[in-house]
Amino acid sequence: MADAATTERVHELREQLHRHNYRYHVLDSPLVTDAEYDALFRELQTLEEANPDLADAGSPTQRVGAAPAPQFNEVAHPVPMLSLGNAFDEEELGAWRRRAAGMLERDDFAMVCEPKIDGLAIALTYEAGRLTRAATRGDGVRGEDVTLNVRTIKSVPLMLQAGASHPSRMEVRGEVYFPRDAFRRMNEEREDAGESLFANPRNAAAGSLRQLDPRITASRRLAIWVYQLGWAEGAETPPTHWETMQWLRELGFRVNPEMARFESTEGIAAYYDRWVRERDDKNYQTDGVVVKIDRLDYQRHLGFVGREPRWAIAWKFPAERAVTRLLNIGINVGRTGALNPYAILEPVQVSGVTVKQATLHNEDDIRRKDIRIGDYVVVERAGEVIPQVVGPVAERRTGEETAFEMPTHCPACNSRVTRDEGAAAYRCVNTACPAQRYERIRHFVSQAAMDIDGLGEKLVAQLLGIHLACDLETRQVYPHLSEDLAIIRDLTDLYGLTQEHLEALERMGEKSARNLVDAIDASKQRPLPSVISGLGILHVGGETAELLARRFGSVERLMDASQEELEAVPGIGPIVAAGIASHFANEGNRSIVQRLGKAGVALAAPEGRDAAQADGPMPFEGMRFVVTGRLEGFTRSQAESFIKERGGQVSGSVSKKTSYVVVGEEPGSKREDAERLGVAILSEDELTSLAESGVVSGETADA
């Protein structure tokens, strides 16, 4: 059983990683470097492995990333686009290979290496040799349809090579990037035009691909390197990754010529060292070397763990560093009252970007690193994104540096600050704290929750009567509340806003006010998981909200559930269950739910779906499914939703743990995998029969 300190740290890490995932994958505006994110992720992974009682299906280690942005249509990936685990030295690479060798029960397998492009992952679908869809990675399960923009990238083939044999349908995955020379030219043109400059090629590529006007994307001179065959139907494909990439090159795809094949980690180490030396000479940015086991049958055998394939790993490059002075340590107050320290730095250039701030985890981390205000510190930017403070340059100390002390009172409301025994975080005890109220409403209106478009940070502050006050001595900015200026006091008041209220606000015209009122009204019909997520229950993210929605079917049933009933939900651990029960034991929180209902917010799933199943066990509870081939009555994503809504899990690969493989037309290798492993095979009709009656209609399913 995990102790209190470990439990608190796990919850804190999950909350931080969810926030960083959202900013990185959705907003393209990350707050931390890849290296800092990797450190947080690995720490959480280690703690969860050592404390299985803290398992939670909503943990960032069990998912890939964050939800798609709203500007483009959302599309489902037939096979999830998972992310890679990381190695940071040769010893970790060797440990990965030994684990794979143990599972394969052999050590004589080849590996393929390629540079890890620092761009934007994309999935290209081809039907009858023509490009029919391009989708971003998104959260790995669903992405954004950016087909019109991708068609403007000259290195993406619109049609496959004539005369080449290709599948009837296939998906190819690659990385869209901004060539360095094109990036420099674009910034020069923007500077001449008096426009703001892009910080780095990766962010510029992401922003260019997500333009609503394809003509803007076309002007940006993006390029692509293809790195993988996602899936194929209607034709045999090569048996190895190496041969597959040569085959894709023949079909007309741009495959990196730097790809190499090795029999040992020694050859890989030499390849990696060469890339560390030469990466700045290339016309594209890289942040590591990807290593993959070559044989595809070995890849299928190894499968996945959590969000990562066991058959591939990214060996990351060392981060870039600079030295600057730590002017002060500021404090952010989160929606749960947690006080989060961050570094205020003397501006310094790292990888061509001016760095002024960096995130610090907590007081314990600051003390462990012995970071003092006034220190010269080492600042690191891994992946050329956002910085972290590695530690102090102790030999440059003058004796005038001061140790950091966590404030005893909240900087936003001056209320008392407490720290539970064994916990890492300090918390403001005042739930009416303006910073907490501000962050709670920002969370409620976010895309992951009620998705109220047009209700940004500044407008939320105006509605709450909050102004930002700057302490000139410490250089910190805090929200301060003027009650007489407030139009709303909590999130339920949003549903009482009128166009007249909004038009009275600064910089709010008639059209904007009308659009915002419409968006607020539309949010009343958000799906139940989004509503649950928006309530801001501690430890309840998007995936946990989906589990709760499927099991209980309404917020009312969820509010009245006992801790024992909550723990009985697959994927909900005792810590999360206790947090949910504690949230709804608070009369103020129950009152918010009741007022949302009176305002017309849908607090229950549509009849016939989750609500109909909430009073008893779900028919697919405990079952694991794989869907393959083309179905008649469902799209692939609809079939997966059908299974999940009835308590089942959906996997992208067949293993001995698979309960059923649902097979449509042209199923490919997954049917063969099921037959080889003795996994039962269902038709589409048999799947619906199993859902309705618990038995397969007609003949027994194939085994």
Describe the structure in your own words:
There is one protein chain. The chain has 703 residues and is α+β, with helices and mostly antiparallel strands. It has 5 domains: 4-62 and 319-418, Beta Barrel (OB fold (Dihydrolipoamide Acetyltransferase, E2P)), CATH 2.40.50.140; 74-316, 2-Layer Sandwich (D-amino Acid Aminotransferase, Chain A, domain 1), CATH 3.30.470; 431-524, DNA polymerase, domain 1 (Orthogonal Bundle), CATH 1.10.150.20; 526-613, DNA polymerase, domain 1, CATH 1.10.150; 624-693, Rossmann fold (3-Layer(aba) Sandwich). Helix content is 35%, strand content 21%. It is built from 25 helices and 28 strands. A 5-stranded mixed β-sheet has the order 2-13-10-3-9, with helices on both faces. Strands 16-15-14-18-19 form a 5-stranded antiparallel β-sheet. A hairpin with a 6-residue loop joins strand 18 (376-381) and strand 19. Helix 16 (528-534) crosses helix 17. It is globular, with a radius of gyration of 26 Å.
